[in-house]
Amino acid sequence: MIQPDAVYDVMIIGKGPAGISASLYTLRAGLSTIVISKGGESLGMAEKIGNYYGVPGDSTGADLLDAGVAQAKALGAVMVEDEIAGLDAGDVIELTGMKGIYRGRSLILGMGAPKKKFKAVNLDKFEGRGISYCGICDGFFYKGKKIGVVGNKDYMAHEAMDLLNISDNLTILTNGMEIELEETKPGDINGLKIYKDQIKGFFGDEFLQGVEFASGRKEHFDGIFIAYGSASAAELAKKAGIMTENGVVVVDESQRTNIAGIFAAGDCTGGFRQVAVAVGEGAVAAKSVIEHLRSIRTSAGGWT
Q1: Alpha-carbon distance 48 to 58, whole Å?
Q2: Are the C-beta atoms of 154 and 161 separated by less than 8 Å?
Q3: Which of 22, 91, 104, 209 sits between 20 and 30 A of 37, alpha carbons compared?
Q4: End-to-end CA, the chain
Q5: What is the pLDDT of residue 123?
Q6: How does pLDDT run across 59-77, given as a tens digit for each residue?
Q7: Distance from C-alpha of 16 to C-alpha of 256, rounded to nearest angstrom
Q8: If you compute the radius of gyration of the chain from its CA atoms, what whole number of angstroms results?
Q9: Assigned fold of 7-115+232-300
């Protein structure tokens, strides 16, 4: 059961093989562990698992996923279904979900492969030059200016609500999609301009000047924030200053990121995307977390 003001020893985003593997080690080490996942893990969609040690060839990905979750629950894992849209790395790490705020002393990103990147002409050209993936990080630079938020789901709505604190001149760009909100109340974005036109690309010189739609129509924007689909591990990482490269989270041989207390494992770190690799990286990440927490607990003289 979730405790409203709890600070967990370990927070894990993702209940796939990397996240669950990590949880088994942290739980056995006596660390309070919460596993947060929106669902839709790619393993659950695998029709057959025929190349994983000890698993019969007629087993499905869903079978393996369910078995891992049950194992973690039996050890005392707190399992939560939520979509994480925000990450703040401080002495206590804070995750902002659609259903609530989660706090912990360490974090493992185990969210799987990055989502398919939003495609549009000149997107890469203007990234960091008018196009951003983090409202909290970069919104300040567009105070009072005209802002567009690309997306159609809860992640978009969350970013839009953050950016409304910066500017009330805000437009939602759904790129031809209908708005689909699961957790966010539709009323939260009522009154905002919404363009459902498909986006062809972006235009400008050295910096972004606006959006060109598939119809040929162009409109000026000072800044565009991409919040397409759900936040990937790399997008969350950027919010906290975690290094990413080519859409994946950068880690060392111990699954550490460049931010103390934050680790990553599995497909979100790139490499050979197989269950066996994800399970192994999850175990290594857990070992590193255990060592990290023991170190800071000793330095702090313990905590309550």
Answers
A1: 6
A2: no
A3: 91
A4: 19
A5: 92
A6: 788 888 999 999 999 999 9
A7: 19
A8: 20
A9: FAD/NAD(P)-binding domain (3.50.50)
